[in-house]
Amino acid sequence: MRRPYGIWVALILLLFIGYAYFTAVIKIAPDEYAVSENQQNGECLLLAPGYNFLPHALIPGRVSLTRFPCRVSELVEIRLPIPPLDELNSEYYSIRMPITLAVEADPARLLVDPVRLVKDRHAVIALCKRALEGFFMKEFSPYLAPDFNRDALIAAMDAMFKSAHEKLAVYAERQGLRIIALDRSGALIVPGYGTYYEGLRYLDELRVLEKNNRKEMIALNAGLEREKLARKEFIEKLSEIARLIKSNPDLLKYIYIDRLGDNVKVIIAPEKSGMPLGLGLEQPAEKEPRKTEVDNLR
Predict the structure, then answer these.
(1) Which of the two residues, 275 and 118, has the higher pLDDT score?
(2) I need a surface site. Which of 68, 94, 112, 271 has the fewest CB within 10 A?
């Protein structure tokens, strides 16, 4: 009796091992790496080439897998604004340079956030591009401000490109990346002096316009605040007058008489109220019951 029972246990164990192998063991090729994302809590793990065991993958639909090639190459455009024209936020007043960037990742040393990789498959290239723009900006700065020297910048372009390339290689190495190639793939576009001075005039016009708009906005807000205070004071005065009249009804007669013109000599008013045109404050007289009516409460 024990023999059939042991066979069933061994069969079930074998089936579980097979299921775990095909669902939870992830094989990553030597020329790629992957990121696993736990659909329940959003946790992301970087998977290196080889066999990786993911316990959460035993539950169907729990883990999603995104694969990335270790080596990527992409054509990017380096865009550097010329101070102070960067305030215009226009590529027309920027230095532009098309570059082919090739990068190889070392999954065992890669420091790029796995969550970022899942959200953006081009995260590695984007990281290197931003770093390269920063290095180029430091190299170009002496030729951009305080005065724009276009001719000297173009003359020193080769040396600055080499320096930026070396700095990028050091930065990439720290991130677990290797720069395979960094080549210019088109002409360097540098705005001319005419375009530069045109941008300065345009920027001055915008600043004057913004200054005037700000002044008008301040004056408008001040006017609205004054109107708000005036309305508040008026309502408070009306409330105070209503309170005084309620406690002293004869005050309304005084206000009425005080507002009359100098040419008014005679006022005809009811004897009780002293107010003309039905403006009296006296309480209406109660109607006396007729003699024929019987008051049952007496």
Answers:
(1) 118
(2) 271
